Amino acid sequence: MKIELTKFAERHFNKSFNGTKILDVSMDRFVEVINEKFNLSEGKLNYGYADFCKLFFVENFTETKTGTLPITLENFNYLRTGYSSRRKEELAVLTRWFEIPYQFIPKAKFLNIVLYTREQLYNEWLKNPNKQKSEFELSEDCEFGIVAILAQMSDDEEPMTPITMMRNALGESEGGSGVSIDRKSYEASVKFWSENAIVK
Description:
The protein is α+β, with helices and mostly antiparallel strands and about 200 residues long. It has one domain (about 5-200): Protein of unknown function (DUF3228), domain 1 (YaeB-like fold, 2-Layer Sandwich). It is about 20% helix and about 25% strand. The protein contains four helices and nine strands; from the N terminus they run E-H-E-E-E-E-E-E-H-E-H-H-E. Strands 1-8-7-3-2 form a five-stranded mixed beta sheet. A four-stranded mixed beta sheet has the order 4-9-6-5. Strand 5 (about 80-85) and strand 6 form a beta hairpin. The two termini are about 35 Å apart.
């Protein structure tokens, strides 16, 4: 099976991106390693939040820092809030994050590779004409596209943020996937993100 990097996920290789940044490995080499590990079963494959989503956990083979930290008395003063959107077409939403000096952020132990099926990527483009098709296109022999890379300290899924669940429920036209909110998952998300925050 073949995995490719979507245009949307290329943001992880940009030093100005606010999420997980891969700065010491090229995009081509990164995808090559992920394909090797996937086909050799050198990682843990889990189901994602919907049938079209898979999560592939691999040991961090880069120098990438963790993207999430527990909120403590020692780092609370680095916590920030503000409105942001992932793309200019999306509505800005209230988010919370750490602004910690880079040298004090620990290296991640694992990378969570978020995969969407070829069919789902195509459907999301069809339902939102404002998006460029190239953002979601995959080669004909490719089954999955990488849509996100999450640097973590464990190889267990961290809950999607509550606001991301809400955006997904709004549908493709607002940058979501069209998956309805599951109350139990939402409550678990609220608990986790009340105690943790994203590192930018």
